[in-house]
Amino acid sequence: MAKITLDNLAHSYLPNPTSEDDFALKELNHDWVDGEAYALLGSSGCGKSTLLNIISGLLHPSQGRILFNDRDVTYAPTAERNIAQVFQFPVVYDTMTVRENLAFPLKNRGADASYVAQRVQQIGKMIGMEAELDRKARGLTADAKQKISLGRGMVREDVNALLFDEPLTVIDPHMKWELRTQLKSLHHEFGHTMIYVTHDQTEALTFADKVVVMYDGRVVQIGTPEELFERPAHTFVGFFIGSPGMNLLEASVRGDTAVIDGVEIPLGAGYAPQSGKVEIGVRPEYTRLVSEGGLPVKLNRVEDVGRHKIVRAEFFGRDINIIANEGEEIGADMNRITFDAGRVNVYANDWRVAPSGAQNEPVGGAV
Question: Domain ABC transporter: where (predicted)?
């Protein structure tokens, strides 16, 4: 297991980058705690796989260093980093049985035969392939082969880190939840440092202790699922996390009040004067339909999703989403919205602003 330090790390695929825009991975300075499970979450092209490949040694960064437990491994080959990596598509030995595939990393390191047998049986059960252990990998389905890849990545107990690059892409949807649960169980049992790349917020939020949200080559927030939901550090986090994402409205902020189109919105806390693009962000869960007061909206449709209703509305061309209880009646006169004051976030130039006097909160671009 290892603490992973990213020190002034950045990468460009261009030979002579001249501006920040030339970098696929913009400067990062972070310590990832030994033994925690992290999910790298973001849309395609945001730099997730680039960062994972730098950590694994498949790619050397354009600048900066990467350290495992304070040992500089920036240019160390993958074999010297003592990691296991599982890729998006299955990598298995077709001529070997499932048992032989799972045993290969242990036998390659001279592990005792009885330990190999016990560990392979344990992992085979974990991935739901006990009955297929003596089958050749050739001819198995893509999701079965990916389960073998996952098992082979997890079979070693002595690795510095386990790296997963969108490993459940080809897995049957009914199996995804079970495998995520098994990965989480494995982490709790053995305490490996785990890094899991995904664009699926459900995978990230259910797997990780801390979610690392990336946008345009940057880490914009590292936090628990609750922190990402309640206090998104960047408007992208608010938009990307949640279904539907956070409502964002341009506003002027005056102390403990936001003003939108002449309507005052209580904030529940005071804020210093802000410049540039100022917005408030409120989750649909904390947005209420009312018949009086608040902001006027145009209701477009109501979607009943079983657990609750999603009301799709707009405020002068800006989409607004409201989550209403399943049994809540939505009257024809309910065409205004209010917000839970304590749940309103303020953003300046896309970064969350901490209330005046708040302690231990990220301010501006800090993560």
Answer: 4-241
Q: Which residues of 331-365 are buried (b: 16+ CB within 10 A; e: fewer)?
A: eeebbbbbbebebbbbbbebbbbbeeeeeeebeee
SS3 246: coil
Helix axes 142-154, 173-190, angle to 10 degrees: 0
268-297 per-position pLDDT tens digit: 899 999 999 999 999 999 999 999 999 999
Does the domain made of 4-236 have the CATH classification 3.40.50.300?
Answer: yes
Tell me, what's the pLDDT at 175?
Answer: 75
- Ranges in the chain, pLDDT < 70: 1, 190, 359-367
Superfamily of domain 243-353: Nucleic acid-binding proteins (2.40.50.140)
Determine the pLDDT at residue 146.
Answer: 86
Strand ranges across the sheet with 25-32: 25-32, 4-11, 63-68, 71-72
DSSP string, 61-83: -SEEEEEETTEE-TT--GGGG-E
According to the model, what pLDDT value does residue 87 have? 85
> CB burial class (10 A; 0-12, 13-18, 19+) of residue 187?
buried
The type of residue at 202 is T
Instruction: Give the pLDDT of residue 361.
Output: 58
For residue 19, give both structure tokens. Answer: 């501006």
- Stated as kind and residue range, the H or E segment containing 213 is strand 210-215
Sign of CA dihedral 175, 178, 184, 185: negative
Domains in the chain: boundaries: 4-236, 243-353
DSSP assigned state of 305: -
Is cis: bond before 244, omega within 30 of 0?
A: yes
Cβ–Cβ < 8 Å for 326, 303? no
